[in-house]
Amino acid sequence: MSSNLPASGAAAAPAVSGRVRGRGPYADIWNRLKRNKMAMVSLSILLLLVLTALCADVISPFPYEQQNLDQMLEPPSHEHWLGTDGYGRDILSRIIHGSRISLEVGFVAVCFSITLGGLIGAVSGYYGGRLDNTLMRLMDILLAIPGILLAIAIVSVLGPGLVNVMIAVGISQIPTYARIVRASVLTIRDLEYVEAAKSIGESDLSIIFRTILPNCMAPIIVQATLGVAGAILSAAGLSFLGLGLQPPTPEWGAMLSEGREYIYEAYWVSTFPGAAIAIVVLALNIFGDGLRDAMDPRLKR
Question: Worst-scoring range by mean pLDDT, 19-33, 127-141, 210-224?
């Protein structure tokens, strides 16, 4: 009996240690993120927003373009929870459908800017020299122009529309991602595993995309979360100025602009779309801050 006890104990120990060792870095990040209550509340709001956008046709009480001139500027009521606008359209239905556009603009614009900005930053940081200096001076020129002004200039050339807004907002964010990726590549390119990849004859393209960029994802993911908030805000600003999506498309910035003339007699026309923008942008910023803290290796315990 006594001879079997050490053997069973020795067999149990590796199993426990194997489970601990098997926990990957993403599990550690998730555990640290769960301890941030504000970040989890923000994540819940964002998941609710995504679910609302996916099920907009089902949960919307009215068609977003349905007009009823007999119910113009009605205050919030049991029939119209958030009231109606100057054309008698249900504001809640338009906000629900507008969530689709805001998420689409935010995610597509950020993916566009990450692709181009990440490529520029990776090439610049990896090769260095004159190429690095030239690309970064171009990025400095773009950074010298406020993002919203650059987006306004691009949309003024391309014209209003959903695709053009995505392109304009995406281009305005390219320098940010180029700088972040370049800084990460500069810290990684001289490490041992990169030198090992070079020694076995891997091409520069393979080293950049298979060895270096996967190890630069943490700051990119965090910035992308914050970038979606900036993209949504920029798209709303363009639509507010009449350069984004055009009526009757239910875009939050355009709805905010339409309610300006009724602000004293019908506050709800502009207040609720503005509140939707504020809540989503705030949730994205708080979640981005929490994600940054969770992915920071210096916070590991």
Answer: 19-33
CATH architecture type of domain 48-63+78-299: Orthogonal Bundle (1.10)
- With cut-offs at 50, 70 and 90, classify the pLDDT of residue 246: confident
Would you say 20 and 286 are in contact if contact means Cβ atoms under 8 Å apart?
no
Q: Tokens representing 93?
A: 């239905």
Instruction: For residue 233, give every residue at least 6 positions away whose Cβ sits within 8 Å of its Cβ, in sequence order, or none.
Output: 277, 281
Q: What's the rounded Cα separation, in Å, for the pair 213 and 117?
A: 12
SS3 41: helix
Amino acid at 198: K
> Mean of the pLDDT values across residues 190-205?
89
Q: How confident is the model at residue 5 (pLDDT cuts 50, 70, 90)?
A: very low
Helices (H), the chain: 4-22, 25-34, 37-54, 56-59, 91-127, 129-143, 147-158, 162-188, 192-199, 204-206, 217-240, 252-258, 268-295
Contact 125, 185 (CB under 8 A): yes
pLDDT one-digit tens code per residue, 133-183? 999 999 999 999 888 899 999 998 998 888 999 999 999 999 999 999 999
The reported pLDDT for the residue numbered 9 is 46
Structure tokens belonging to residue 162: 């959903």
End-to-end CA distance of the chain: 40
Q: List the beta bridge partners of residue 90.
A: 84
Task: Give φ, ψ of 13 to 5 degrees.
Answer: -60, -45
3-state secondary structure of 301: coil
3-state secondary structure of 72: coil
